[in-house]
Backbone:
């Protein structure tokens, strides 16, 4: 029965985006996407076009990170400058943007298909299907956003068995979009001491690249709009304080503190075997990316796709009587966050704010607990090594 559910779900996973894209290209792009409640600005794969337009601006002697006159909506480019070299090298122009957009979509669907193949319960497969085709992923497909490619890079790093390809994929993602730097750090923490050299070296190299591009990163930050709609993160929440009176502000802070306290005291104690499994690795890497993105910035809702690979671990926790409630709440929060703008841009905002913060509050205590365990084990290992050295000296 699980096999039949998996096959039908996989068919839906690929057919739904294919049908939407076919209808959008063959008729009215905006109308098709807005019928399924995905906001559209009227230009196909508009986020990819911000790069192709940036290339044209560079050729005319301009700086698209400051002013991108050829962009359909005159948006300054908010990607690292490396994209302006990659696209011409690969021959990507406005004429073949549609091919790149379809490729990004296919890469994302391949990753979700892998998760569904590895899931051994019908409920889990359907959950991944719903999460994988929620409004946030469809928004990323409609925009042709580069986060789909970054998602694929990080996913490759999580599932590959090559110990060099793994940090290499995380490094490539970090250089291309900065925020996946969290994946590189999380990977270093997960590895045994003897295998941390490559992640540490690549982390240092990534930091050097960021330092070298500090002016560009500052421009990117200014070029990224801080919106209270269709977005999440601490900066988005802070932007909303302008619309609050002191009573509402106090109530919001009290609710946030209550949610954080409950999340801390109800955090699951994940077994080491499960944490070290492939699903545990997906949760730690993608969860770290989400926590980092939430904490440092304002992110458009399509970035919620990075929560989908964290669901298999939550599904495993629902099988435990002790952690079932945590797993159910987490899964429900992810699906609610991904579909928070179902009733429109404005009406869905409170649901989006609540669910994205709940997810952040649920993931962070797990990482803090794992970091504490890591520091304790590192301290014990250091004491053991120094003790052995001292005893050796006494014997000598």
Residues:
């Amino acid at each position: 029965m699980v096999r039949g559910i998996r096959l039908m779900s996989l068919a839906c996973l690929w057919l739904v985006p294919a049908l939407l894209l076919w209808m959008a290209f063959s008729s009215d792009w905006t109308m098709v996407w807005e019928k399924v409640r995905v906001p559209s600005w009227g230009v196909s794969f508009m986020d990819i076009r911000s790069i192709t337009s940036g290339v044209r601006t560079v050729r005319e002697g301009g700086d698209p990170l400051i002013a991108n006159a050829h962009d359909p909506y005159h948006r300054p480019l908010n990607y690292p400058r490396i994209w302006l070299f990659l696209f011409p090298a690969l021959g990507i122009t406005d004429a073949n943007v549609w091919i790149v957009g379809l490729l990004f979509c296919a890469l994302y669907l391949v990753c979700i298909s892998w998760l569904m193949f590895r899931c051994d319960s019908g409920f889990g497969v359907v959950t991944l299907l719903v999460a994988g085709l929620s409004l946030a992923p469809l928004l990323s497909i409609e925009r042709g956003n580069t986060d789909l490619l970054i998602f694929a890079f990080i996913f490759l790093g999580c599932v590959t068995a090559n110990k060099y390809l793994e940090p290499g994929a995380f490094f490539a993602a970090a250089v291309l979009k900065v925020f996946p730097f969290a994946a590189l750090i999380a990977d270093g923490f997960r590895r045994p001491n003897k295998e941390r050299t490559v992640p540490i070296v690549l982390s240092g190299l990534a930091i050097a690249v960021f330092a070298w591009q500090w002016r560009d990163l500052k421009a990117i930050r200014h070029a990224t709009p801080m919106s209270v709609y269709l977005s999440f993160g601490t900066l988005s929440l802070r932007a909303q304080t302008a619309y609050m009176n002191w009573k509402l502000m106090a109530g919001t802070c009290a609710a946030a503190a209550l949610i954080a306290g409950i999340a801390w005291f109800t955090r699951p104690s994940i077994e080491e075997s499960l944490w070290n499994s492939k699903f545990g690795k997906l949760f730690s890497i993608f969860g770290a990316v989400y926590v980092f993105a939430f904490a440092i910035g304002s992110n458009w809702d399509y970035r919620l796709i990075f929560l989908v690979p964290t669901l298999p671990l939550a599904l495993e926790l629902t099988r435990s009587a002790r952690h079932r409630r945590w797993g159910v709440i987490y899964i429900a929060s992810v699906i609610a966050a991904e579909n928070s703008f179902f009733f429109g841009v404005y009406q869905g905002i409170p649901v989006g704010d609540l669910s994205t913060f709940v997810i952040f509050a649920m993931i962070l205590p797990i990482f803090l607990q794992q970091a504490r365990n890591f520091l304790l084990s590192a301290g014990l290992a250091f004491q053991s090594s120094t003790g052995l050295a001292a005893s050796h000296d006494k014997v000598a």
